[in-house]
Amino acid sequence: MLKITDLVKRYGSGDPVLKNLDLTIEGESVVSIIGSSGAGKSTLLRCINRLVEPTSGSIELNGTELTKLRGRNLRAARRKIGMVFQGFNLVDRLTVMENVQSGRLGYISTWAAIMRRYPKEDIRRAYELMERVGIAHYANTRADQLSGGERQRVGVVRALMQDPEILLADEPTASLDPKTSEQIMGLLRDLAGELKLPVLINIHNVTEAKEYTDRIVGMRYGRIIFDDKPGSLDQEAMDRIYSGSPHADRSEDLRQAS
Amino acid sequence: MTSISEQFGREDWSRFSSRQKWQRFAIFAVCALAIAWSITSIEVVWAWVWDAPSQMGDLFERMYPPDATNLATILRVLWETVNIATFATAFAVLMSLPVAYLAAQNTTPNRATLWLGRLILVTSRSVNTIIWALLFVAIFGPGVVAGIIAIMFRSIGFIGKLLGEAIEEIDKRPVEALEATGASRFKVIAYAIVPQVMPTFWAVAILRWDINLRESTVLGLVGAGGIGIILQGAIDTFNWPEAATVLLSILVLVIIGEVVSAFLRRRIL
Amino acid sequence: MSEARDTWQKPPFIASPAIRWAVYLGALGYFLWVGATMPIDWGRVADGFGRAGRIFGGAFPPSFERSGLLIDGFLESLKIAILATTGGVLLSIPIAFTAARNVAPLPIYYLGRFIIIVARSFHPVIVAIIFVKAVGFGPFAGVLTLVVYSIGFVAKMLAERIEEIDFGQVEAMRAAGAPFFSTMFYAIFPQIMPRQIGLTIYQLDSNLRASAVVGIVGAGGIGATLANAFGRYDYDFALAITIVIVGVILISEGISGMIRKRIG
User: Fold this and answer.
1) Where is this region: Disordered (chain A) (predicted)?
2) How far, in Å, are A96, B267, B269 from residue C13 at the CA level?
3) B38 shares contact with chain C (CB less than 8 Å)
């Protein structure tokens, strides 16, 4: 279970990007986060695995408080959090197998990593997962020779190789064409069910969010203003999530505070 | 209908505005001044300058035909020259890896190491190979050791600078991704950074080897080994035909070196 | 279902094992054999560390007593660099045109390329020795040397740039009936000018570095002062000279980088 309490992220002395956020994700569900650009979706996701440092607040994953961890403990916690990126973030010059095994870097020794001597169970698991998503025949191919959809599948397998307790996906389909996009979303939904994994997906395509996820969280300029089943996302809620400007919101905040 | 001058404020057209014209004139004037100063104040015996073409012609006449009697020795020493360049480049390549890592902003542990790395690179680059050779001949005496170390010292700066720039210019996204998996700093570097700089690494190493081949031909002139010694000897004894042979063999060596580097570069990249 | 595969090996860089092992063993053999047979006087090398101590001891603090000599030497190097860059760049332009495949007819192309190759193959010090023998000691030999050095670099880079130009612009001029030189000035020069200026500035910097060195063989400049200092065991003066050389190189590189960034 992921429990976020009172999360604030501020850059410098400006307006906070995340304003006192509360969010709880339980069990195996696929949750999507929607909102316009600048709403803070990506920041929120990156605060969870500390790629971005939260300014204040608490993030608890299955009992472990993530915000205070450093060094070895932080790395150990990150092993349990898998992330899929919009830009795939693969090492282009390495083979698919190496990219996939790089998800296990937190678990294997430095020597094994450098010499590419991966443990047998890891190799077996890699082939299983690659087979499952349909890229097993690319094991020895360089990552930059694959198409966008195939690369994202490598990214997904890499994240799953970590044997994570939660999967984060930051706009995983934004760089893909509509058909491939649906394939990846379907994959994420199916894998979540098969592996009993909670999944948190940033997405800007609301139609896909409605179709492939069980719960939609709508963000607007640093706050969560919608949190419900896809069915309840009507036009009025959409307008509230996607309209307005940060400036207007800020003056509204100031007015309310005074 | 408004006239051109009413619409645009002027009747004519020129490529540069008034201000630009002044700037260009100023730059031109500075360059002309610099050149004039150099020509007038340089210590040159102008009589000799006009005599130069005939002197050059005379020299080339004396070099022809090239004398190949000592070719065996020349080739043997030439091989020694190649070895100096190859060994020195290999050592330098190994030693520049940690220095480049220190001198790149995204991989260096802290500001002190960044400064140290950059200091090493700058010192190494700014002192010419021959000057290094002078120093090492004074320390280690004449011979190939001084030459190898001199070339090594110069090359570390060259390779390290280009490598450091390559490290700073990598795509940071895989680095982010691997940090997110909980990998240690070292493993992140090994998987996300090293593969990205590999092509540049090999290209720079091959390039520097090619340059060092040239550098090692002159080390002998200050006593640091290689074919320079034979060349110096031939010139000092006015044995121009032999000097010509040496020069020709150096030319062939350098051309072979370029062919080999072009081949390696194409195969590896 | 597919059989469970539990081993994996990264495909090696050189596919054929025969070639791969040949390369590994060849490289190993080369380094071991040459390393063992290299003419090294290990005793002398060991002595070297003691000598190094004495030399560095004698070199600190650097002595600027004869700064007059230093400044003269440096100024001469500067003049050599300026004149050599001017001459070298001016000559490089026509040579570059003869060495560009898309502009020069084939035999002229080969000639141009040959000139550039010869200019590049000889280390400036070697070229300096030859010029010193031909035209005597002093900065004139240095200027000639660095002119050749400049041609080797600038003409090569310029030729490559010329080969990369957008030929459509030349075609358009020709289609309009422009004569040869007009075509050159309107269609080709504007395309190569930025690169040309960048190269000139880079070469000025390069020549300044090189002019510090050709003096060692008598071609003028601060190199001669340095070689003398070493020869007379004046290590503190030598260090002073080296510091000045390094300083000048750094400043020049900094300025050159700045200018090239502004116009680039």
Assistant:
1) 238-258
2) 16, 11, 11
3) yes
Distance from CA of A143 to the nearest CA of C (A): 13
* Residue B27 structure tokens: 């730059």
Nearest neighbour of C7 by CB, restricted to A98, A123, A140: A123
Residue A199 has pLDDT above 90, yes or no: yes
CB contact under 8 A, A102 and B184: no
β-bridge partners, A34: A218
| Helix axes C42-59 and B144-168, enclosed angle (nearest 10) | 70
Q: Tokens 């542990």 appear where?
A: B109
Token pair for residue B101? 């890592």
Q: Which residues contact B243 (CB under 8 A, 6 or more apart)?
A: B63, B231, B234, B235
Query: Phi and psi of B33, rounded to 5°?
Result: -60, -45
Distance, C-alpha B100 to centroid of its chain: 17
The whole-number pLDDT of residue C3 equals 55
Angle of helix B18-41 relative to helix C67-98, nearest 10 degrees? Answer: 120
ipTM confidence score:
0.89
How many interchain CB pairs under 8 A, A with B? Answer: 82
Q: Do C51 and B126 touch (CB under 8 A)?
A: no
Distance CA C73, CA C78 (A): 9
The vertex-B220 CA angle with C149 and B243, nearest 5°, equals 70
Cis amide prior to C61 (ω within 30 degrees): yes
Give residues 120 to 179 of A whose Cβ lies within 8 Å of B: 155, 158-159, 162
Amino acid at site C261: K
3-state secondary structure of B67: coil
DSSP conformational letter for A13: T
Asked if A95's CB is within 8 angstroms of C7's CB, the reply is no
Contacting partners of chain B (3+ CB pairs under 8 A): A, C
Match 């203003």 to its residue by tokens. A225
Give me the tens of pLDDT residue by residue for chain B, a chain 269 residues long: 677 777 777 777 878 788 888 888 998 999 999 999 988 888 888 888 888 888 888 888 888 888 888 899 999 999 999 999 999 999 999 999 999 999 999 888 899 999 999 999 988 988 889 999 989 998 998 999 999 999 999 999 999 999 999 999 999 999 999 999 999 999 999 999 999 999 999 999 999 999 999 999 999 988 898 999 999 899 889 899 999 999 999 999 999 999 999 999 888 87
Contact C220, C76 (CB under 8 A): yes
Contact status of C3 with chain A (Cβ, < 8 Å):
no
Question: Do residue B87 and residue C31 have CB atoms under 8 angstroms apart?
Answer: yes
Set of chain C residues whose Cβ sits within 8 Å of the Cβ of A123: 5-8
- CA distance linking residue B110 with residue B118, whole number of Å: 12
Q: Write down the residue that tokens 């070469």 correspond to.
A: C203
Supply angle C-alpha B49, B50, B53, rounded to 5.
90
